[in-house]
TrEMBL record:
<dbReference type="GO" id="GO:0005852">
    <property type="term" value="C:eukaryotic translation initiation factor 3 complex"/>
</dbReference>
<dbReference type="Pfam" id="PF01398">
    <property type="entry name" value="JAB"/>
</dbReference>
<dbReference type="InterPro" id="IPR000555">
    <property type="entry name" value="JAMM/MPN+_dom"/>
</dbReference>
<dbReference type="GO" id="GO:0016282">
    <property type="term" value="C:eukaryotic 43S preinitiation complex"/>
</dbReference>
<dbReference type="InterPro" id="IPR037518">
    <property type="entry name" value="MPN"/>
</dbReference>
<dbReference type="InterPro" id="IPR050242">
    <property type="entry name" value="JAMM_MPN+_peptidase_M67A"/>
</dbReference>
<dbReference type="GO" id="GO:0003743">
    <property type="term" value="F:translation initiation factor activity"/>
</dbReference>
<protein>
    <recommendedName>
        <fullName>Eukaryotic translation initiation factor 3 subunit H</fullName>
    </recommendedName>
</protein>
<dbReference type="InterPro" id="IPR045810">
    <property type="entry name" value="eIF3h_C"/>
</dbReference>
<keyword id="KW-0963">Cytoplasm</keyword>
<comment type="similarity">
    <text>Belongs to the eIF-3 subunit H family.</text>
</comment>
<keyword id="KW-0396">Initiation factor</keyword>
<dbReference type="Pfam" id="PF19445">
    <property type="entry name" value="eIF3h_C"/>
</dbReference>
<dbReference type="GO" id="GO:0033290">
    <property type="term" value="C:eukaryotic 48S preinitiation complex"/>
</dbReference>
<dbReference type="InterPro" id="IPR027524">
    <property type="entry name" value="eIF3h"/>
</dbReference>
<comment type="function">
    <text>Component of the eukaryotic translation initiation factor 3 (eIF-3) complex, which is involved in protein synthesis of a specialized repertoire of mRNAs and, together with other initiation factors, stimulates binding of mRNA and methionyl-tRNAi to the 40S ribosome. The eIF-3 complex specifically targets and initiates translation of a subset of mRNAs involved in cell proliferation.</text>
</comment>
<dbReference type="GO" id="GO:0001732">
    <property type="term" value="P:formation of cytoplasmic translation initiation complex"/>
</dbReference>
Length: 356
């Protein structure tokens, strides 16, 4: 599948960081968490100033018909659907009427265990960055957020990826990928994200975290919230299900990679077979042309092989690159969370050795 070729305007003030209003974070996380495990998305609004992209407002897209609560990627391509484009136009018009910043700067999506490297993400970002080169996508990993702190990351297509898309005419052939030195690490560029609170919200958070704010008659309330409070979660010997799911999805991605590689290998065999037939036809034509020259007859051009043979179309290498990027994502997550699981396993083994 080829991507649309877009001519991007020159960046006058490229952005290098993203600042999100805390109200936007609450609205975004509530939408994605309530719809979990279904994949949902919405539009983010704001402006870019002084190389900083400020996200000031966001609203969700309505779920697609028939999506229900099942986990699917139907809503992953929703930002460019006709129904949501009409919904987006109406919402922006209403927001302007109440003097709310209504400049689209990208969209947000929910993900499950970091599984967001797909064709829909690339297609949407190509369309958004064609209209505004500073557009981004915010990815909220609901599962990872429930395991630790907020997992909200901002991405945009890298300059290498956009150059390859432009130079190859939207077709990621092997020649175009090698010529532009494009790898799975060059698809997305991550931008640092920070959350901005109002002064009143900051004061409230400081008050809630102060030692004086504790329940009456409960002298241990401050100790339980302290950083030095006892934490017995480390004594749980069960392997983290988050880590188990990452390994499971990693194996599935590896299977997808081998399937994609098998498709490309089949293309290479077909291409070699056709090229062998073409060479045989050219050799035969040369022999016939030698006889025709002796008989003073017109010769046949060797380029006429295109009338008799058709080379197979090379499959896009984009799917292979996306799967490789997804495998790398799972590996990074496993590496990050496996240290705790490994410590537990070694502790169990050491305890068994002592008892034996």
């Amino acid at each position: 599948m080829s991507l649309p070729v877009t001519v991007l305007p020159e960046l006058t003030t490229p952005v290098y960081s993203v600042v999100i209003d805390s109200g936007v974070v609450l609205k975004l996380t509530k939408h994605t968490s309530d719809a979990f495990p279904a994949t949902v998305c919405g539009l983010i609004l704001g402006l870019d100033a002084n190389s900083v992209l400020q996200v000031t407002h966001a609203f969700p897209f309505p779920p697609s018909e028939g999506s229900g609560s099942s986990s699917s990627n139907d809503d992953a391509s929703a930002p460019r659907s006709k129904a949501n484009l009409r919904y987006q136009t109406d919402m922006i018009r209403l927001l302007k009427e109440v003097n709310i910043e209504a400049n689209p700067i990208g969209y947000y999506i929910s993900s499950y265990l970091g599984g967001f490297f797909n064709q829909a993400l690339v297609d949407n970002l190509v369309a958004f960055q064609a209209a505004n080169p500073n557009s981004i996508v915010l990815v909220h990993d609901v599962t990872r957020s429930s395991q630790s702190s907020l997992s909200l990351k901002a991405y945009r297509l890298s300059a290498e990826f956009l150059a390859t898309n432009k130079n190859s005419g939207g077709k990621f052939s092997s020649e175009a990928v090698v010529k532009n030195n494009l790898t799975y690490l060059d698809i997305l560029e991550e931008l640092p994200v920070s959350v901005k609170n109002s002064h009143l919200a900051t004061a409230l958070l400081q008050h809630l975290d102060s030692p004086t704010f504790m329940k009456k008659g409960d002298p241990d309330s401050f100790v339980s919230s302290s950083a030095l409070a006892p934490n017995f979660d480390s004594l749980d010997l069960a392997i983290d299900p988050y880590l188990e799911k990452n390994v499971e999805f990693l194996l599935e991605s590896v299977d997808d990679y081998y399937a994609e590689q098998g498709t490309f290998n089949y293309f290479q065999r077909q291409l070699a077979r056709e090229q062998s037939k073409i060479q045989q036809w050219i050799q035969k034509t040369r022999s016939e042309n030698a006889l025709r020259e002796r008989a003073n007859l017109p010769t046949v051009s060797e380029d006429d092989w295109q009338k008799h043979f058709k080379l197979p179309a090379e499959p896009s290498r984009l799917d292979n690159i996306l799967i490789s990027a997804q495998i790398n994502q799972y590996c990074n997550q496993i590496e990050e969370y496996s240290s705790v699981a490994s410590s537990k396993l070694f502790a169990i083994q050491n305890g068994l050795d002592i008892h034996n």
